[in-house]
Amino acid sequence: MKRLAAGPKLPEDPADTGGNGRGSKMAYKNLLLHIDNTKACAKRIEAALALATRCGAHLSALYCMGEFQLPGWADMPQHLTREYLSREEERAREVVEDFEEKAKRAGVSYETRTARVPVNAIADEVGMHARYADLAILGQVDPDDTPEGTRDLVEDVTLGCGRPVLVVPYIGAAKENGNVVLGRKVMVAWDAGREATRAVNDALPMLQKAEKVDLLAVNPVKSQRRHGENPGADIALHLARHGVKVEVQHLEVHDIEAGDTILSRLADEGSDLLVMGAYGHSRLRELVLGGATRSVLEHMTVPVIMSH
């Protein structure tokens, strides 16, 4: 791993106050952004810079150069290897320089990193860097523009890094008057499970700054060990003690999948950020995601904070 440059250090936010005016001890101060040579990367950078500016956070941008490893019996001519590496280094330089220019213009504290790793280890590299950040910012996979080794990057990093991730749609975050709007109207997908609980806690800095927070429980089952008699009431009370005003919604919808219901409610409420748990596990090295997680990752229209 090679560090290329670092930007100026910004002063700490003296107040760290949320949008409701109450002080907060929780904040994102160290963000990791995965950058690549996709068309969607520019929108991801835009969202990351907006979040870093809002939080007064340091933003580290990581570019991974994937290398193909041939079987032991195969051998690539040296001139082809040199040409391939040269192209990869030029692509990395262009993307990193573009990020640096935008970060300087935004006035955020930043640094850039490049890593040369096997193409099938890119997710492991991003996950390793993510462990030393408050939040990792990744991009939704665009099926028409997916670099080698990154098809399952979001899933692998989310389930393996131990940190929350912010996944930015390849269409970008919402905008108002040309500026990114992120976290003004937040929706929380709540099922009272471990993953959702983790996601709510990890997203607390955003929830405290939000103007509106809707907590959505789809087909909640009342039980003492799960939702309780009034689904969403307990977590809403917990959030209220952190200065977050929450509106709880219950939806009984049995003819539509939970993921599709969540996406529909996001549009209805005009939410610009979704918070949800990421459900999944590895089965014989094959990633298996929960239905709602898979649906949201494939069809998301707003950025999503996920935790596992």
Automatic annotation (TrEMBL):
Domain UspA residues, every copy: 184-306
Which SUPFAM superfamilies would you find in this protein's record? Adenine nucleotide alpha hydrolases-like
Location of the region described as Disordered in the Swiss-Prot/TrEMBL record:
1-22
Family matches, as InterPro entries: Universal_stress_UspA (IPR006015), UspA (IPR006016)
Family to which the UniProt record says this protein belongs: Belongs to the universal stress protein A family.
PANTHER family, A to Z:
STRESS RESPONSE PROTEIN NHAX (PTHR46268), UNIVERSAL STRESS PROTEIN HP_0031 (PTHR46268:SF15)
Task: State what protein this is by name.
Answer: Universal stress protein
